[in-house]
Amino acid sequence: MLLSKTSEYALQALIYLATQPPGELVLSGEIWEYLKDPDDPRVPPRQYLAKILQDLSKAGILESRKGRGGGFVLAPGAEDKNILDVVEIVERKPLGQGCVLGLKKCEDATACPVHYAWKPLKAEVIELLSQQTIGSMAEAVRAGKYRIHLPGGSTLRVKASA
Question: PANTHER family from the entry (predicted)?
Answer without folding.
Answer: HTH-TYPE TRANSCRIPTIONAL REGULATOR YWGB-RELATED, WINGED HELIX-TURN-HELIX TRANSCRIPTIONAL REGULATOR, RRF2 FAMILY
